[in-house]
Amino acid sequence: MDGFAIAASSTAATTSIGIGLGVTAGVVGLHLPIIMLLAFLPVLGIASAYARLNRSEPNMGSGYVWVGRSLSPWLGFLVGWIGLVATVVFLSYTTAVTGSALLQLARLAGLDAVAGLTPDPDSTAQSTALGILVLVAVTLTAVTGLRSAANLQKYLLVFEYAVLLAFCGYGLVVGPHPFSLDWLNPFTIPSGQALAQGLILSVFCYWGFESSFSVNEEVRDPADASKAGLITLFTMLGLFLLGSFAFQRVLSQDELAGNGAQGLAFLGDRLADQPLAALPLIALTFSAVASLQAGVIPTVRGMFAMSRDRTMGPLWARISPRHGTPAAGTLAIGAIAAAVAVLSLVLPKIGDVILASVNAIGVVVSLYYALIALAAAARFRARPLTVVVPVLSAAVLLALGGYLCWTFYTSADHFEVSPDNGWFMLACPAVMLLTGIMAAAWAKWVRKSPYFVTGRGTDPDAVPLTA
């Protein structure tokens, strides 16, 4: 249950439905249900690879360890690095989303002018400033340990899911727009680029189910991590399909694409009067807060595993004698995410921050997942039947990511800091990967980590982190 709470909060179904569906609808139109279903198939193949690797070698470094030992230490390090930078970007934009949701609540509460400042949910500056305060609070909570963090997640999840089921279920029944079989027809999506980008965005929505594997050294039985991850993934599929159908029953395509970060709040306004209409917005706020904390926990444990192997600095391996957690690394992740959130102020609208962040994370996560699937295929190649699914899943994700990067490259002839500029959208994931290669070179030739020789750290039998 604790693993499910962490993984479900990290996947953040309420945030994905409230924000991700509107962003995706802006790309694929009224095809959300089929896009969510198609994206689920390769991700399910990735989940099966995670489960098999976890049974073979439970390690909080998960993908970093498995890819390093099955394929290449360089690729393994890159997987660990992608997990770090993708989560930092995720935390930075979720910080702004959290602040935006709180500002919307302030408006609903009639706080139109607080300290002489009018709440503007579309303002990146206001949203980021308020969200950083929340980030500080949840980071401090994560320091105290997995148990306290998981308990908080459970209460937040119960409320979120109750609101989602109530409003989306009601919208599914009373929505003014009739069901259409075209919603389930991928061949009427406007273009190949729209299909690829929609699938990448949907893969991003599922991202986070693997968080349960990052705490497999802190649970009684590592198999519980696999169960929690798979249960989370199927739960997300059900919620995303429910949300997709409900949104398209209640909202038009223009309303879906035009409301971005306020999509779930807009749905609430269409289905109920105040104060009931505020419940989806409160659920979105809770989801954003929970995903902030859930994003910190697995990332820090991945960095702990890398530090144990001397591929990252000793800061990440420092354990709090009071709480038994990597407290210093937890605080560092929170601080870095806050700094990146401040840098995102170059994009003045919260919707632009979301679009740029989600596309960049989607591309690198596709590579991250594909490498883990290939690691499973390489490790269990003696059993041909267990190789087919991971290889096919990896091929689909690599093809999607590669095609999307190509369309970004060919869609512009100059660079501009804007989510409408293809070169900027390509530069974001490219910077993530290039910094990873540089960090790997530093770890190999400056830190002289034995991981790059053996695929193992200096102490493979180190005592696991305890909860």
From TrEMBL:
Its main location: membrane. The chain crosses the membrane at residues 32-53, 74-103, 123-143, 155-175, 187-207, 228-247, 277-304, 325-347, 353-378, 385-409, 421-443. It comes from the Bacteria. This is Amino acid transporter. InterPro entries: AA/rel_permease1 (IPR002293), APC_superfamily (IPR050367). The keyword Cell membrane applies. It is a multi-pass membrane protein. The lineage of its organism: Bacteria, Bacillati, Actinomycetota, Actinomycetes, Kitasatosporales. The keyword Calcium does not apply. It is found in: Cell membrane. Signal peptide: none annotated. PANTHER family: AMINO ACID TRANSPORTER-RELATED (PTHR42770), MEMBRANE PROTEIN (PTHR42770:SF7). Keywords: Cell membrane, Membrane, Transmembrane, Transmembrane helix.
